Amino acid sequence: ILSCENMNTPLVIGHRGAMGHETENTLASVQKALDLGVDMIEIDVFKIRSGEIVVFHDANVERLTDGEGKIENYNYNELQKLTLDGNHKIPTLQEVINLMDKQAHLNIELKGNNTADRVNFIINYYVKEKGWPLDKFLISSFKWEELKRMRALNSQIGIAILTDEDPLQAIAIAQELDALAINPYYTTLTLENVDIIQKAGFKVYPYTINEKKDIKSMKQMGVDGIITNYPERIK
Ligand code: G3P
Ligand code: MG
Question: Superkingdom of this entry's organism (predicted)?
Fold first, then answer.
């Protein structure tokens, strides 16, 4: 499902939903990405003190909400009182999955500590009880230890290795975890290293590409997907 037949048509992956259009990581942003017909949506998640997995990018709530402090220290009821941009709530992972209703793939980026267990539990629920194909989910993280925990919990789930350094350095861990993809920072890519990663058997889904000239150069390198704030610019 995640294969890319044509080098010039990479998967369109909406970043934090479609954050070029709506407040990042909100239900509105996820809905906007769906409306734009994305192949996949990327969201960031943390586990909060009361155990829920919530969709949020920063370790601290200050930049995006009217609250303060570390998101991991919040209980669900306290977090519900915060607003983003005045009129959005921080959604749970389940709220996002329910909204998506299998319309696109979901890339869950593990941001916080000790998220793998709970995220795996939630995914298993949607696979077993709601008929989501397991390959609709892709788990990524810069925290490779967390990805190791995810693989230990789930031998089948798609894993993407996030890196902002030389992407060739991620091949060994990708092999160790039988990963699907390496998700590099786009400026680290060249025709040569994209080719090496693909020949090693991994997809290349770089982040975050918004400008026309960069989209063009990613397509020329033959990447398999493009993570973008503006999904409508890719096709
Ligand atoms: O998953 C790609 C990208 O989202 C990684 O960086 O900081 O935007 O979560 P960040
Ligand atoms: Mg992210």
Answer: Bacteria
